[in-house]
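Q: Trace token order:
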Amino acid sequence: MTDSTLAAPPRRTRLALYLDLIRFNRPAGWLVLLWPTLSALWLAADGFPGWHLLGVFVAGTILMRSAGCCVNDVADREFDRHVKRTARRPVTTGELGVREALGVGAALAFIAFLLVLTTNATAIALSFPALAIAIAYPYAKRHVSMPQAVLGVAFSFGIPMAFAAVQGRVPLQGWLLLAGNLFWVLAYDTEYAMVDRDDDLKIGMKTSAITLGRWDVAGVMLFYLCYLAIWLFFAASQAPSALLYIAFAAAAAQALWHYTLIRERTREGCFVAFSQNHWLGATVFAGIALSLALR
């Protein structure tokens, strides 16, 4: 063995560690939050919501997802070392301390809160339960048989906040769209959980993939169906058009493609299906935004 073989990997800079902590090189994570939030923003405003709200919700989504990664990595640092895909996360390796990671997360969440302060009282009030649910999610994996449902609420809270920011209130439509989006989160995060199922079983982590067992693939497809049906119902009632139906048909076709990826339950196929979900969300948003614009 040569000295180079035994050499430790080079130390990463603080900036590189922070970017890794917030998954900067994996934008799919914040895109699946952004598309339903923007879809809700367009529906709430009955069209383009204005540059101010667009900027607030785009930046706020990215900041809060990044803050959530910090909390998640601190909560899961002992579990992550036993999972190949997560073993090199900077908190797990000890390259970043717990206090430092939480400090980064708190700073990002505070900046997001400053953005919310530029909206209205209803949106500001909703930001507190949104933060509480985001913090609770990592710990739900110890106690809840389907923690993806908790994640679904956390990842969907931008929807009622969008209605609040535009209308000063959250109509029933906003809450039902949140419920619909929860099904989408259940679909793609179950695909994600299928990647790590063997590791999660060994360490005692609870996930929807484990809970559903042999019904995991059927469950994912049912979740996609519920998500698309609920969102299509509200979008079509507000801005029916051939373009909207084409967009939702394209989104359904993507869901069927995901079935071909996950039906054999391979790690590679399930991860590809998960990582491509942002295109499905983008398709739904495009259909809604264009239908509203071209009425």
About this structure: The chain is about 75% helix and 0% strand. Residues 10 and 120 are 47 Å apart (CA to CA).
